[in-house]
């Protein structure tokens, strides 16, 4: 069921290497370029944030492991451009005719960068149904973790947190459901909750019995305990 | 049930494998077709490398330390309060603040990708995006903290926030001892990026 991005709790990755405080310096120009290119291409309006995340998750496990962060971004961007019929495969190899693209009118001009970044993309939505759970209520996460709409599809319940019992800490109103939105099946907003779990729910050898992990989970990921 | 049929098809392999050449090739193709404006790319890069950074978050923390009414408003609706300070936008649409206390240390991760509160902290550091941090922060936060030089007492619990939705978390570190007379500007200088992720503590004044 799993994909390579779902790595929470995994063993064997070695030490975390801290770096100086302040704004991190991207080591290479191409990393900044990859970041900017991804954001600019996103404003063509051919996909949403969930589709974009899922494109990175669908890299082969071998590519996901060997690519650095922004290499994942640029590979997933190229894949999306072809999947969404913005570019043809031969155009990625430098072929195809020149001239402006049918979507060229949507290209993000420098003058609109500030307003697009400032606007962001709020994920909260109105919803008619009342929340199923209340603060403090005990809940259990779905097991197995996985997209219930599309086999192998995008979901935001990590494997390590499936089938665990916790309690509702906070209700955030309704948010766009990634499991649906990543596949063009609509935003299907659901109530979103922060759920607290004891570390003992997830790990056979937790570091401390009082430690906790919280996750932000959509209503369909949860059942009453 | 629909199946995710596009799995085996990875057109990115058609681009040059070297990352710098790969990015350059894609930028060239998209620019030639009028799909991206190179000046817009320069503007995006300038925004994140020079204008948005941890100083934004530090200003929020310093005010929260200085002004109890502000802290109360932050607890109730951080997104609105922080927007009023001019910090909002992409990856900062839904902000929640979490407060460190002598009993509880908070630490933020995104195990599934690398979600991060960009308008408050800027570009995420390399370690935040690393497999090691994403994999280990939830299972052994105390060992990870030790790698940052932080040893927590046994009397303090750790709560790790896995950012699985669009809520972005800002840790309010504990205010250091001996800072009673300091101005907000002086306090903000003590607030490090890592202290607002929860892998560091605020600096003590020299």
Task: Walk me through the structure.
- The complex is a heterodimer of chains A (225) and B (206).
- Chain A has helices spanning 29-42, 49-57, 61-66, 69-83, 89-92, 110-119, 178-181, and strands at residues 124-125, 138-141, 165-175, 190-198, 212-218, 222-224.
- Chain A is an alpha+beta fold and 225 residues long.
- Chain A has 2 domains: 29-119, Cyclin A, domain 1, CATH 1.10.472; 125-224, Roll (SH3 type barrels), CATH 2.30.30.
- In chain A, strands 1, 2, 3, 4, 5 and 6 form a 6-stranded antiparallel β-sheet that branches.
- In chain A, helix 2 packs across helix 4 (69-83).
- The longest helix of chain A has 15 residues, at 69-83.
- Chain B has 2 domains: 18-50, no CATH class; 54-197, Nitrile hydratase alpha /Thiocyanate hydrolase gamma (Nitrile Hydratase, Chain A, Alpha-Beta Complex).
- Chain B has helices at residues 19-32, 38-51, 54-66, 68-84, 118-121, 126-129, 131-136, 141-147, 184-188, 193-197, and strands spanning 94-99, 104-109, 157-162, 167-172.
- In chain B, the strands form 2 sheets. Chain B has a two-stranded parallel sheet with strand order 1-4.
- The termini of chain B are far apart.
- Chains A and B meet through helix 1, helix 4, helix 5, helix 6 and strand 3 of A and helix 1, helix 2, helix 6, helix 7 and helix 8 of B.
- Strand 5 of chain A pairs parallel with strand 3 (157-162) of chain B.
Largest interface here, residues on each chain?
A: A-B, 114 and 96 residues
CATH topology of the largest domain in chain B: Nitrile Hydratase, Chain A
Give me the CATH superfamily of the largest domain in chain B: Nitrile hydratase alpha /Thiocyanate hydrolase gamma
| Biggest β-sheet strands, sense, barrel of chain A | 6 strands, antiparallel
Please tell me what the overall shape of chain A is. globular
Question: Gist?
Answer:
The complex is a heterodimer of chains A (225) and B (206). Chain A has 225 residues and is of the alpha+beta class. Chain A contains 7 helices and 6 strands; from the N terminus they run ααααααβββαβββ.
